[in-house]
Specification:
Layout: E1 2-7, E2 17-23, H1 31-39, H2 43-53, E3 60-66, E4 69-77, H3 86-103, E5 107-110, H4 122-133, E6 139-144
Parallel strand pairs: 1-6, 2-4, 5-6
Antiparallel strand pairs: 3-4
Helix pairs in contact: 3-4
C-alpha cells in the first residue's frame, strides 16, 4: 500500500475510483458529499434503491459506477445529522478494501474521509487506513484543500 496526502482538488486527481462517506439516508446535502451528489446526479436514487431493495444496513460500502468513474460510498451512519463511531467507520473502510480487491482497483482517491462534518480525528483515520490497506498494493491518494 502506498498512501499519499496532497493538497489538491480530489476531482482533478484523475483517479477513476473515488471514496467518500455518507449516511444511510443518502442526504448528501453538505460537505464533499454535496459535491459528489452534484457530479453524479443519479447516484443518490441508485443507492437508495440498492439499500431498500436488498435491505442493506450501515456500516457498509456500496460502489456506484458512472461512465468511467467508480464512487465507493462508505455508509457510516444512519442519518445525515448522526456522527459515526470509529467501529462503524472501520467496518465500512474494510468493505472499501474488499471492493477494491475484488474488482482489481489499484488506485483510489479520497478526501480526508470522516474528518469533515463527521468530526473523526484524521490521525486516527489515517492510522486505520494504513492498518487496513497495509497488506495490499493499492495506491491511495488523499486530497485536501
Amino acid at each position: 500500500m502506498n498512501l499519499t496526502i496532497k493538497q489538491m482538488d480530489l476531482f482533478k486527481s484523475k483517479r477513476k475510483v473515488l471514496v467518500h462517506c455518507i449516511s444511510q439516508d443518502c442526504a448528501m446535502g453538505a460537505g464533499i458529499a454535496k459535491t459528489f451528489d452534484k457530479k453524479f446526479p443519479n447516484m443518490r436514487n441508485a443507492l437508495l434503491y440498492e439499500l431498500s431493495e436488498n435491505k442493506i444496513k450501515y456500516p457498509v460500502s456500496i460502489p456506484y459506477c458512472e461512465k468511467d468513474i467508480v464512487v465507493i460510498n462508505m455508509i457510516t451512519k444512519p442519518r445525515y445529522f448522526n456522527k459515526p463511531t470509529y467501529s462503524e467507520f472501520r467496518k465500512a473502510l474494510i468493505d472499501v478494501k474488499y471492493i477494491c480487491l475484488m474488482n482489481g482497483y489499484k488506485e483510489i482517491g479520497m478526501p480526508k474521509i470522516g474528518c469533515g462534518l463527521d468530526k473523526l480525528s484524521w490521525k486516527k483515520v489515517e492510522k486505520m487506513i494504513r492498518e487496513i490497506f497495509d497488506d495490499t498494493d493499492i495506491d491511495i491518494l488523499v486530497c485536501w484543500k
